[in-house]
Write a structure and sequence with these properties.
87% helix; 0% strand; single chain
Length: 177
């Protein structure tokens, strides 16, 4: 029973509730805030697992992934704790303003984290696409240059003559030039 009480006190601390004050409140209030603390820990745990899998995919190193996952979960826990502890009951307009600021921060964090991961994960496909585009542009430039200068005919004739010379040398049994 003492262990359950200590876990409950820790969960209350997670949401920034005074344990001394909470001991004076009805059990339903304690249960409500304890549940909020458990939700915060679950969010941090989920963040840890998500970052671990993302980091393993990016870095191919489990130890680095564990460190990043643990660090990310602490960051998420601290941000959640800050957001929960700074909520004050005020007018609905002020609460809406606070909610919009928090949503903006959440979107900013998600973009800051997701974009580098996405680029890292898709870099091979991007590099392949860039190389294909480069080769296509080179081929188009070569074709345009050959058409403009008439160099194609001379190059083709020279390559054909070299091939004929090579074939003739092989037929005779000599080493081709």
């Amino acid at each position: 029973m003492r262990i359950i009480r200590r876990v409950g006190d820790f969960l209350l601390w997670c949401v920034g509730v005074s344990i001394i004050l909470m001991n004076k409140c009805p059990g339903s209030e304690r249960a409500k805030h304890t549940t909020n603390g458990a939700i915060m820990l679950l969010a941090a745990g989920t963040a840890c697992i998500a970052m671990f899998f993302a980091a393993v995919r990016v870095f191919d190193n489990a130890f680095t992934a564990m460190l990043l996952g643990f660090g990310w979960s602490i960051f998420i826990f601290c941000v959640n704790r800050f957001l929960i502890t700074t909520i004050r009951k005020r007018s609905k307009a002020l609460l809406l303003g606070q909610a919009l600021i928090r949503i903006g921060v959440a979107l900013l964090v998600s973009v800051i984290i997701a974009t580098p991961l996405e680029l890292r994960i898709t870099r091979d496909r991007v590099a392949r696409g860039r190389e294909e585009l480069r080769l296509r542009v080179l081929a188009q430039d070569r074709t345009a240059l050959e058409e403009a200068t008439g160099f194609t005919t001379t190059t083709t004739k020279l390559a054909s003559r070299e091939k004929d010379l090579h074939d003739l040398a092989e037929h005779i049994g000599e080493d081709p030039p």
